[in-house]
Amino acid sequence: MSLINMAKREINCKIVYYGIGLCGKTTNLHYIHQAVNPQDVGSMVSIDTETERTLYFDLLPLELGKVQGFNIRFQLYTVPGQILYQQTRISVLKGADCVVFVADSQASKLQENIECWNELQEQLRRMNKDITDYPLVMQWNKRDLQDTLPVSVLEKYLNPYRVPSYEAVAVTGRGVIECLRVGINTTLQRLERF
């Protein structure tokens, strides 16, 4: 749930990039950090292991100006994808206003993606979120690799609610800003209803 600070006239929203290990979540944030106007973005905080895998989370603060006199800030987080960090994923997911599910498009990763997607759905249910009315964006990442599944297969197994989805290559930025833009817009639209 967005944090509204009436005294400071600020609304802080949280977008979480969720997916299996090495699917491109951190790469998304690195690309966004480089692509956004330096005045609008804070420092990126990243806690990585020696193998460059995210250990806890990445945080990228992003300021988007004012809406009805309130400063709008988005904080972009990633979760660690490795199975042993399930509790950390749950902690980072708490309070999320939107989730960008980053799927590794490689055929060999389909089962892992399905398990991760099922885990996300279960966690959102436990947080009393109606997944059919929750800001969610699907990103089919690594589309530049040779052994990728057709988008129709990814849609069949990972997008039963037919939320917006985009093909992406996070290392080059293809599809990254589009996913973020939709995540921000759906979050803001949801805020307007309250």
TrEMBL record:
Pfam families reported for this sequence: Arf
InterPro entries: Gliding_Motility_GTPase, P-loop_NTPase, Small_GTPase_ARF/SAR
Lineage top rank: taxon: Bacteria
Keywords assigned: GTP-binding, Nucleotide-binding
Molecular function GO terms recorded: GTP binding; GTPase activity
Keyword Transcription regulation: no
The protein's name: Gliding-motility protein MglA
Organism taxonomic ancestry: Bacteria, Bacillati, Chloroflexota, Ktedonobacteria, Ktedonobacterales
